[in-house]
Here is the input.
Amino acid sequence: MVGIEEVAALAGVSTATVSRALRGKDHVSAKAQAKVEDAARELGYVASSSAATLATGRTQNIGVVLPYIDRWFFSVILEAIETELIDHGYDLTLYNLSGGEKQRKKIFDELLLRKRVDGVLAIAVNPTEAELANLNRMHKPIVGIGGPVKGARSITMDDVAAGKLATEHLLSLGHTRIGMIGGLPNADEEFGQPGLRYYGYAEAMKEAGLTINENWVAECDFTIPGAYVVAKQLFTDLRNSPSAVFCASDEMAFGAIMAAKDLGLEVPKDLSVVGIDDHNLSEFYGLSTIAQKPAEQGRAAVKTLLDILALPNAEDHDNVEEKKEWPVKLVVRASTAKFAKR
Amino acid sequence: MVGIEEVAALAGVSTATVSRALRGKDHVSAKAQAKVEDAARELGYVASSSAATLATGRTQNIGVVLPYIDRWFFSVILEAIETELIDHGYDLTLYNLSGGEKQRKKIFDELLLRKRVDGVLAIAVNPTEAELANLNRMHKPIVGIGGPVKGARSITMDDVAAGKLATEHLLSLGHTRIGMIGGLPNADEEFGQPGLRYYGYAEAMKEAGLTINENWVAECDFTIPGAYVVAKQLFTDLRNSPSAVFCASDEMAFGAIMAAKDLGLEVPKDLSVVGIDDHNLSEFYGLSTIAQKPAEQGRAAVKTLLDILALPNAEDHDNVEEKKEWPVKLVVRASTAKFAKR
DNA sequence: CTGAAAGCGCTTACAG
DNA sequence: CTGAAAGCGCTTACAG
Here is the structure.
């Protein structure tokens, strides 16, 4: 395990000069620079990050907290964040909240605070007041994605607007018998996104002067199989069923499309389907959807966080509430079409 | 930022006693223990991990290296590993290799060696000799999953056996016109799994005295859309097409099933399909497949790695080649049936 | 069982 | 531009 002393000895300079040369912060004579670089290379020297952290107070490490990994939105965003952090010389420590309350407590009360990370990225995780207070006490900035974080910065799309935009697309095509698959307002997700998307749907329907048929609104667990089952229920009576369905996620839309197919309904001739996400399989399914570009959201969040960390004063690292709205776009493909009697 | 000194002062003991009480390693009198715990709680003290690492040489952190996150196998295994590590008091630092050669070099030559991790878990990543030599120099154990690691321990299923088992299942049902979708032997994946699975298929066919029809073997990128396209090609001439297809992954099997459906073929009446993985959607698709249980593989790898790290002598941390075969099981569902003329 | 003190390996203000 | 030295905040062998 070669240390800085050995490099200094081989290069014939002090450890201070080695440190300066290798970090490239202070000026070092070209000659010393070269000697140090040669020595470091020859010995295969890599600085110990714990020693550097202890001396500087910076870990060059970001904690990422999320509730799932094995879901499209999360895995895409995680991959983008990781690449972006590495590019900026940061490591990523992963904290998955799937382990329940006890694990969450451990993560927020111990791990994140063990001076292990310089900042936190919270993906669809809403810290409690106490959790945030702890972070503030340590001057650890946190940036949220996938939902607004109370008392801190976040980047998130407007779920109500997304639901409304999707529904209005169906309305614009002449549909009036519009169902919805997704979460109802009381769903206990971290931010109630499912509910928010429902509100957008309800708002659009109301503005169009239409009433919602409650038999055509189905709660669902955001999975393909779940939506498949639920979608079939919407069509128990083909003489009285929706001509269009808004699904609160693309995966549910895939399930709905498959269910329709298996019932002998043609999409979009007999049924229009629109989702939210722009999943990487949406093009394959020809799904019209609301794109939310998670990879770009992730990169933007990394930039926000690193910009804060670049500020020299610790007070500037304090968390302040600041919502940045992420733009949302309708992508029209083959799963939606003008209403036609079937 | 409260440190150990403040806790010691409040508890009226030395920092040595605080450390001992909080780590629970050496014996401490019940009275001192209580005083320290109270003081630590009152101050919200959490030890600095960089200081602890510097003093002990242990980071309590494991580096996980993988080529993708946004793929079923990888996200499932990652989630399982993370939970298991947290349970054992370890953090997980994520290194995704999707950033190309330069990023890989940075990861293996700098990040992993910055004394940041105690050990490495490599998922479907095969370190080069030089990369492994670096790890060995630092006495960092590495355990591989999803492919054998040359010169180190690994847990991996036998891809040839899996391909053979899947093909034999089709043979046992009376099929002789068996196609395959997946990688050909020359595919440049890290370990050539695609090729290995093909060899299993070829071996089974040969042992059954059958020759392979090259028009029925299609290379594919392991995605659903890719397999959909390729599967349709297998059925350009329905009078002369396979009655069964072995797909080297479940996602490709899903694509094949959809393609068959869209062509008006019934699965399994007109076409039997078998995959490899036991993807979480396989039950939904009724897919017969070879289960490889990535979450369990991940947990087993964590156990192997932590067991090594628990050995007190640094030499015991050295890497030795040791392949542990992961058992594989055929799961029969609704996508395979006895051969029948169509 | 407990404390004083050395030491882990860096970084950086200070002095030159 | 460079070096000697203090200091970051823990842990642990040593002595008592």
Q: What stands out?
A: The first strand of chain A starts at residue 61 and ends at 66. Chain A has a mean pLDDT of 92.
